[in-house]
């Protein structure tokens, strides 16, 4: 049986201002808490991508869901990590290595407000909750516009930087903006990542390329009934 496994995609866990550009990138902490409670009540276990990998390979079976956060916002640590811990869940935060201790500089030209990124000590605190740190490149570029050499540099430098901080292998990767192609998925594998997530919408199945994994977006407008539809029905399964 080819089970369908939801991999949730979050960004910022905070209350946005009414006039914020791209306020949909944010999920209110109270909404995130409700969503994790719903998963728990439904019998799901929230996992990091490292922990989810054996399920995607078919080596383990269970009612599981992947939980991912793109970009590495400090509010992932302050607002989301305690809630994950409360439910015995894990998750993966994909870091942009050159932004560590800074902010989301790649969004400034779009008018998206500055949002603080975790520093090295906060990354270690995130891991102390039993959570995973993954790679989101060095500078958050559209990788498909770069030469192979620069693509390699973006992935390798991010991986090395995070491994130097955590002392652990960085095995999970996420494509910035969800932009990728077959060459990039091969590169991610060759660099040493076990999984790579995209912004393709749908629940993952075991026959998926582990370096082209779809996810389910959760944003400011994801009300509880819609969240449930995304998890337990074919609502998001546009790919499969």
Give an overview of the whole structure:
The two termini are 15 Å apart. The longest helix has 19 residues. Helix 1 packs parallel to helix 3. The mean pLDDT is 95. The chain contains seven helices and eight strands, in the order βαβαβαβαβαβαββα. The protein is α/β, with parallel strands linked by helices. It has one domain: Glycoside hydrolase/deacetylase (TIM Barrel), CATH 3.20.20. Strand 4, helix 4 and strand 5 form a beta-alpha-beta unit. Strands 1, 2, 3, 4, 5, 6, 7 and 8 form an eight-stranded parallel sheet that branches.
CATH class: Alpha Beta
Low-confidence stretches: none
- CATH-level-4 superfamily name: Glycoside hydrolase/deacetylase
End-to-end C-alpha gap:
15 Å
CATH level 3 topology:
TIM Barrel
Number of domains: 1
Determine the mean pLDDT: 95
- Radius of gyration using CA atoms only: 16 Å
The SSE order reads: EHEHEHEHEHEHEEH
**Any idea what the CATH architecture is?**
Alpha-Beta Barrel
Q: What is the 3D shape? A: globular
Taking the sheet with the most strands, its summary is:
8 strands, parallel
Please estimate the helix content: 25-40%
- DSSP summary, beta strand count: 8
Residue fraction in strands:
15-25%
**SSE class:** alpha/beta
Q: Tally the helices.
A: 7
List keywords for this structure.
single chain, 240 residues, alpha/beta, TIM Barrel
List the helices and strands and how they pair.
Elements: E1 7-10, H1 29-41, E2 45-47, H2 49-56, E3 64-71, H3 74-87, E4 92-95, H4 120-128, E5 132-135, H5 148-166, E6 172-174, H6 182-191, E7 195-201, E8 213-217, H7 224-232
Parallel strand pairs: 1-3, 1-8, 2-3, 3-4, 4-5, 6-7, 7-8
């Amino acid at each position: 049986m080819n089970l369908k496994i939801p991999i949730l995609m979050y960004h910022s866990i905070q209350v946005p201002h009414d006039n914020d550009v791209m306020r949909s990138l944010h999920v209110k902490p109270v909404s995130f808490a409700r969503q994790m409670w719903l998963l728990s009540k439904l019998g799901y276990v929230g996992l990091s991508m490292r922990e989810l990998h054996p399920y995607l390979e078919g080596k383990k079976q269970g009612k599981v869901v992947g939980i991912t956060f793109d970009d590495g916002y400090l509010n992932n640590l302050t607002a989301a990590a305690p809630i994950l811990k409360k439910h015995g869940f894990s998750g993966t935060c994909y870091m942009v290595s050159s932004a560590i201790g800074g902010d989301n500089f790649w969004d400034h030209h779009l008018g998206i407000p500055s949002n603080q990124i975790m520093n090295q000590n906060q990354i270690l605190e995130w891991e102390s909750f039993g959570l995973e740190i993954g790679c989101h490149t060095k500078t958050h570029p559209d990788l498909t516009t770069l030469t192979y050499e620069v693509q390699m540099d973006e992935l390798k430098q991010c991986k090395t930087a995070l491994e130097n901080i955590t002392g652990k292998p960085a095995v999970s990767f996420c494509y910035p903006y969800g932009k990728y192609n077959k060459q990039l998925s091969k590169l991610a594998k060759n660099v040493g990542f076990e999984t790579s997530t995209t912004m393709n919408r749908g629940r993952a199945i075991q026959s998926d390329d582990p370096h082209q994994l779809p996810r389910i977006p959760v944003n400011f407008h994801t009300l509880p009934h819609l969240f449930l539809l995304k998890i337990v029905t074919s609502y998001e399964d546009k790919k499969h």
